[in-house]
């Protein structure tokens, strides 16, 4: 069986169902990454399982300045210090420059620079050729915090095909979602580690709505207002029912002269609780990405 892939509204050659299934399976393989560092370790190798490559690169590009944080695998694939010496700015690498501009589909190096011009420059002589990269393809993701992450795959012997490009385009949204989710989770973990404002507590939920991390006050306030849950990692039924029914306006409970207000924090399934005398509010965050 084959399935048509679509690029910017144009149907491209049909992909085998195994290729499409592999691209969607890629998203499942990275969705469990809890931190950006873990995602950065998992994603390039998972991409290389979809599209065979000899060298994998991961670039974080600051859109306002063009500054780059660069990693390559396997270790030692590139000459030591060569990338920093040749690529001081996103504009010095055609694929990074292209993906730092408005959103684009997967791009091959041959689509953004003439081969003759490339081979006469330092980028090719001191970096790409020295690393065994004759052909390269990259996808770009936006993190939502003024950065683009560009994942690149390079190989020596054959150009990347239309099939390779289409498969990477299918995989890209899942990777972008995972990036945003790990960033959001990091913000929540920092919020849990810090002291929240008086009368406020944060609770982090996983994708199934179960409690992953919580300040002690959050669990205690929920139990006082809504009763105990059927399992230590679960929410009390009234809170679980509220969480399951979008758009989830703030959930307010009055008990013994105190008001508890529960609301989802933006960008992830998290909720934060705060409880004070009746004018106070409690908020509870969940961990899904918005």
- Average predicted confidence as pLDDT: 83
Number of helices: 10
Radius of gyration of CA atoms, rounded to a whole number = 23 Å
Order of helices and strands: EEHHEEHHEHHHEEHEEHHEEEE
- Beginning-to-end CA distance, first to last residue: 34 Å
* Helical residue percent band: 25-40%
Poorly predicted runs are: 1-12, 278-290
* Number of separate structural domains: 2
CATH-level-2 architecture of the largest domain: 2-Layer Sandwich
Structural class: alpha+beta
Inertia-based shape: elongated
| CATH level-3 fold name of the largest domain | Beta-Lactamase
- CATH hierarchy, class of the largest domain: Alpha Beta
How many E strands?
13
Give a short account of the largest sheet: 6 strands, antiparallel
Could you give me the name of the CATH homologous superfamily of the largest domain? Transcription factor LuxR-like, autoinducer-binding domain
What percentage of amino acids are in beta strands?
25-35%
What features would you highlight for this structure?
290 residues, alpha+beta, Beta-Lactamase, five-stranded antiparallel sheet, 10 helices, 13 strands
Brief summary:
The protein is α+β, with helices and mostly antiparallel strands. The protein has helices at residues 17-30, 36-50, 82-86, 94-100, 109-112, 115-119, 122-128, 162-193, 216-226, 237-244, and strands spanning 2-7, 10-16, 55-62, 68-73, 107-108, 135-142, 147-155, 200-205, 211-214, 251-255, 258-264, 270-277, 285-286.
Characterise the protein shown here.
The protein is α+β, with helices and mostly antiparallel strands and about 290 residues long. The chain has two domains: about 1-180, Transcription factor LuxR-like, autoinducer-binding domain (Beta-Lactamase), CATH 3.30.450; about 195-285, no CATH class. Helix content is about 35%, strand content about 25%. The protein has ten helices and 13 strands. The strands form three sheets. Strands 8, 9, 10, 11, 12 and 13 form a six-stranded antiparallel beta sheet that branches. The protein has a five-stranded antiparallel beta sheet with strand order 4-3-7-6-5, sandwiched between helices. The longest helix is centred in the middle third of the chain and has 32 residues, at about 160-195. The chain is elongated. It starts with a strand and ends with a strand. About 40% of the residues are buried. The model is unreliable at about 1-10 and about 280-290 (pLDDT under 50).
